[in-house]
Amino acid sequence: MAVSVTTKTAWKLQEITAHSSNVSSLVLGKSSGRLLATGGDDCRVNIWSVNKPNCIMSLTGHTTPIESLQINTNEELIVAGSQSGSIRVWDLEAAKILRTLLGHKANICSLDFHPFGSFVASGSLDTNIKGHTQAVRCLRFSPDGKWLASAADDHTVKLWDLAAGKIMFEFTGHTGPVNVVEFHPNEYLLASGSSDRTVRFWDLEKFQVVSCIEEEATPVRCVLFNPDGCCLYSGFQDSLRVYGWEPERCFDVVLVNWGKVADLSICNNQLIGVSFAQSTVSSFVVDLSRVTKSGFILHGLIRDDKPLVQPTPAGSSLRRIYDRPSTSCSKPQSRVKHNSESERRSPSSEDDRDEKESKAEIQNPEDYKEIFQPKNSISRTPPRNNEPFPAPLEDEPVAVKEAVKPSQAVDVQTPLPKQEHSDPIQRPPIAFSTPVTRTEPSVIPAARNEPIGLKASDFLPVVKNQSQTELVDEEAMSQIRKGHETMCVVLTSRHKNLDTVRAVWSTGDIKTSVDSAVAINDLSVVVDLLNIVNQKASLWKLDLCTIVLPQIEKLLQSKYESYVQTGCTSLKLILQRFLPLITDILAAPPSVGVDITREERLHKCKLCYKQLKNISNIVKNKSGLSGRHGSAFRELHLLMAVLE
């Protein structure tokens, strides 16, 4: 007697600790469904193979958190955009940086590779693409590569003609920020999902709305058309929903407890979904052979005043089909190259130095060679004949794999000197079960990714399981606004103080403005002013040193790294320009007769000398520190040796 075996329709595949800090973005490769890239607040991009335990490669070079990621069609290249607005493109097979782009001035919110050409589109909080008035949240090239769709916080979706370089149409109708857009794989149809909790379908021939699905309980963040275009998948907090659009209807709802799903991909009739919460990334699988993609209506999206239209048969279309280029597109048309003089940068430029510091650190050589350099395959990317993930039995508990965090400083090509653990294989295993107590640093770093002493979780409602629960936007904002007025008062006061200092400077000299900054008794204002003065050495005079040196003494003992850095820069400038003068005047024999100017200069030199002696003790004590702070203080200690 045969026994029927039932397997799960959806299950959790893996859970990994992807970064040493919070995960800020992630993306799946769409060709294989097996390549995963994660970006973190630690400014790294980590490359993973779905369902494999270890990080394959870690890409460095960004100096601010990674805000957006995209992998190209062939899974050869990856582009990452950061909080500062910089964009970096890496070649995954060659494990090297290809290009650093610095066109934006604010967070990179969205990226997309052209399906055939070697270029990317980027959207930012600075509202470039021009035409949007708020942050551009999503970009997608059309399947034929002729159009670009952009979605933004200004509630609009715009369609751009790349050949003409201008906007074709602006779709309005959403009442909240538009988070995602997706082209139909074959037809002239576009889907958009919004924080207004609707999914809208747009006809790209008639430039009008086809239908709107309005039943969602949470903002729409992630959508994907089935490869044959028969339906649209939408990922929500606790489910995957399957939609049709002519008329609007829901074919199926699959319960998947994946939390804040960030990206979807389809391979071997399986849908792969990835989500993240803090530093953890989870992957899930939905067996699409068990999902209803057409036919009957699961529940009432049909309006009473609309006749039921029969679903369009597979292979037929109600609207125009995209024309693909006739040439093979299995490889990009050309590698990104620095050809023109305008694109070249001098080796001494800061941009070029940044590019040299960008590295692809191979964490797992075996997986790297298997995926990106297969011996018996022409394809550069993960093999297209990946086997489906085996579905667990309905009553079988799923063993979720935990992965080891990527190494933070391993470069296989160029091992770092004086590094005790250069071989990642020899490192002791990381015990994830051991609780780690966070202690605030004695010196607060200038490049920190979160405010010290302020934790976002303190302003939000307590959630029992953050990986499964997404806060409603309005609720989160109301909690954050509680301290908003206080912060506005602080920032307004600082702005007013700086305006006062600027007004004094415009009517007087630099000494008077520094006097006014010191009188305000706000060290942050002094730091802001010194950061300007330090850039122009000609502004410095001896009488200015007498005012600034007591402030430098405070800065060098500050807990803020940025204050210490400013203090060190000012002190170094004073020592180089004025210490020889001070020592010469103090060593000179007394003058004959009365020379008021000389007496005033002598008085200033004695005052500076006394202040420098006090500061030298601080510098001497801190010169034993390690890292760049210790190096800066040791340099200052050498410059101040004459005082001893």
Automatic annotation (TrEMBL):
Classification via Gene3D superfamilies: YVTN repeat-like/Quinoprotein amine dehydrogenase (2.130.10.10)
InterPro entries from the UniProt entry: Katanin_C-terminal (IPR028021), KTNB1 (IPR026962), WD40/YVTN_repeat-like_dom_sf (IPR015943), WD40_PAC1 (IPR020472), WD40_repeat_CS (IPR019775), WD40_repeat_dom_sf (IPR036322), WD40_rpt (IPR001680)
Domain of life: Eukaryota
Cytoplasm among keywords: yes
Gene Ontology molecular-function annotations: microtubule binding
GO biological process, one term: microtubule severing
Its job: Participates in a complex which severs microtubules in an ATP-dependent manner. May act to target the enzymatic subunit of this complex to sites of action such as the centrosome. Microtubule severing may promote rapid reorganization of cellular microtubule arrays and the release of microtubules from the centrosome following nucleation.
Protein name: Katanin p80 WD40 repeat-containing subunit B1
Species the sequence originates in: Dromaius novaehollandiae
